[in-house]
Amino acid sequence: MANNQKTKWVLDPSHSEILFKVKHLMITNVKGEFKKISAEIDGEDFKNAPIKVTIDTASVSTNEDNRDNHLKSADFFDVEKYKEITFEKTSFKSSEGNTYELKGNLTIKGITKEVKLAVEYGGGNKDPWGNEKAGFSVEGKLNRSDWGLTWNAPLETGGVLVSDEVRISTDVQFVKQVS
Hints:
eight-stranded antiparallel beta barrel; mainly beta; 55% strand
């Protein structure tokens, strides 16, 4: 009898976060996060399995209502028209030790571009209820204007209100599911 079991790793949202930082006034960072995310790794082997991440754009939060509403507007994410940001893995290669290079197609506002991210595999463990878990930290940088997120304001002293560079910092935990 053949083993037809399929393994899927599903994001544990209560132990995962997607954070971003953007320079404001060219002097400090403003931090934000997306509160509603889902992700799946479809297979046992992380390197070879398809990986898909879906982010609810309306869940963007910077702990400041006026800024959050501006981010949700057509100036930035246009959440009425573009409900999701997606990421789909194209490659996952060993770098050194427990670090990897993850490449994938990131789609924001209907524009898809390949991004490269640094991944650190934190390892696997079982929780007190017997669930097998795996953890990853992901870091990267992107240029927001590549996805049509171009709103800005010039400063009197030179420079701009919001930098183009966005730094991403993610810690995610996955739960193994076998069906």
